[in-house]
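Exercise (ungraded).
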Amino acid sequence: MRPLITLITDFGLREYFVGAMKGAILSVNPDTDIVDVTHDVRSHDIPEAAFTLRCAYSFFPPRTIHVVVVDPGVGSARRALIVSAAGHYFVGPDNGVFSLIYQSETVERVISITAEHYFRRPVSDTFHGRDIFGPVAAWIGSGIEIGKFGEAISDYVKLTIPKLVRDAAGVVRGVVLHIDRFGNLITSISAAELAGIGKARKFSVAGKEIHRIVRSYSDGLPAEPFALVGSAGFFEIAAQQSSAATLLQAQQGNEVLVYLE
Amino acid sequence: MRPLITLITDFGLREYFVGAMKGAILSVNPDTDIVDVTHDVRSHDIPEAAFTLRCAYSFFPPRTIHVVVVDPGVGSARRALIVSAAGHYFVGPDNGVFSLIYQSETVERVISITAEHYFRRPVSDTFHGRDIFGPVAAWIGSGIEIGKFGEAISDYVKLTIPKLVRDAAGVVRGVVLHIDRFGNLITSISAAELAGIGKARKFSVAGKEIHRIVRSYSDGLPAEPFALVGSAGFFEIAAQQSSAATLLQAQQGNEVLVYLE
Amino acid sequence: MRPLITLITDFGLREYFVGAMKGAILSVNPDTDIVDVTHDVRSHDIPEAAFTLRCAYSFFPPRTIHVVVVDPGVGSARRALIVSAAGHYFVGPDNGVFSLIYQSETVERVISITAEHYFRRPVSDTFHGRDIFGPVAAWIGSGIEIGKFGEAISDYVKLTIPKLVRDAAGVVRGVVLHIDRFGNLITSISAAELAGIGKARKFSVAGKEIHRIVRSYSDGLPAEPFALVGSAGFFEIAAQQSSAATLLQAQQGNEVLVYLE
């Protein structure tokens, strides 16, 4: 079986960056399958990269190697990591991009990458995706044990992710994490986490209330926004064949209120 | 030989959707080659998906599995299909995306997918690309006979595609299906179909006449729009190294008139 | 080992073009790995395609076949080429897209492709990526010796690339080749070439001076643009976590001055 590497970056698709990184991977091991998750993370947006990884990784086969390069600190002293968790590997900078993996999975090991003989030479100060993360991922795929790349550490960078809390009025608060291309508002409200607190009665976002809670997009009514659990397990606000973002004049970062029964 | 799956969706490239769907395919059979045709079909635009499939599928090797997920009815009672035609397989929702295959090829079998043990579990109500269409395509690639997925049906959904007709004045009417990134106007006028009716003398679109009919883009004159048969077999209106759409102030949906000799 | 083909085009990702070209490649040899470098070269921008190829090709393994289709002259008498250089193959139109390969590498052979039995049939007048360049690349990957495709030539088209020159005032002139998605200004000033002339003291672009020259993006100060050597070996003007293009109101094509010590 060929090793499988996935890529999440903020490189965009117009430049030569993604191509060069794939070339560096294939130069280590030409027998690698590479899958793009996305290269359109907003520039330097570490939380968005963490969310994308969280939504995607578990659908890949065991032993997949997920490389995340959203790396505003490239060339600084920030560390480079290999994370082993949930039967997968994760490779990228120590800047919080793996926070949602740390939160949702049992972490087996986190290695701080120092073994420079696995890097592409010379190592640039501006493009570690090509010179470090890509080649290291390819070597893992070739069977190098991750302990060979450096020492295990435990003080890796974690973004603070607030837990859902029910206030005195029976309200849980979250935010619009992301607006997708259909205009759906993806919220930070995990359906599994909310289930441990209570049952949603209605939502409110951008000053408008959403009373309809359904199972699938096709259960909605045209021009009436509704809430449902999206495919990544988070509540989202959607509208049938139209944009909820436009209907509600909502934006990324807006507060989302859930009124519980 | 590794099985080959192509993808046409309206998921866009920014979200985790395409990655998760590929992960679901590779979790069934990691030894699959996956080719993106496009993920930028306009949201919910079934005719555009049908046209893209019609232009692309025949260039792939026999036994390729083409997955089309433009699926505004996801989670509703709309059926899920496998179509066998022209030595290829087609997998997607029963909403008309395969209409141009039904029109141009001899259809061998259309299966309504019901065998849930081939689905990814749990099946979400919002993302059948990941949970149904991708895994089913991967199982077909692994050699499962398509009759195993459900019963053959004949009442599948077909979009109405008008035939070209010559009117009393010797004029044939079509529309601008699509404007490509070069500004070329792709029309609904099939060159093969028109050849059975007559020979084009001039075109008219957006109130402007096009008198020049050429073989290749380089035969045109700068700033003078011309007509030619595009690479998918449809007439298009183009301009040399500039945008015909801008020159003619034309838009998708504009009527196109062909004046016959 | 599976043959490896990379693609650089101006086809965009919305149309069926890239998919059809990959299908044509895989119809010749389904056992081919295909890597997209980019399909978002500006329409018909031959210098941008040449620059992208120059930045990407050397990171791929030996014997990789790089296909470049930015081809405003498709259907005209312009020749189709195979270039053998630096242990790689390059396939595309004879319009200058390989100029930076000719400049930086020892060219072993340039073949003018004429052996039509390697083309896809029928050959359209508008889409040689699918009908000629893709299939020829796939046949090279299948082991056909490049001399079988046509005669060696030496009068291939080369774009003029000015050498860096130090003027009487100790100034070297270049241009902004490209603005990347982070707002970095990629200049035409090769660090290796400049090293043979002198050492940079400050830069000037769009009437503003840049005094800070650093090694990595993280060495910069916020809101103060700085110069550094980018990952492709060219000087670029950047700003820490913000857009140098916006800060300097700079555009592609602006003159860049380097003041030497």
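Further reading is listed at the end of the chapter. For now, observe: Chain C has six helices and 14 strands. The mean pLDDT of chain C is 94.
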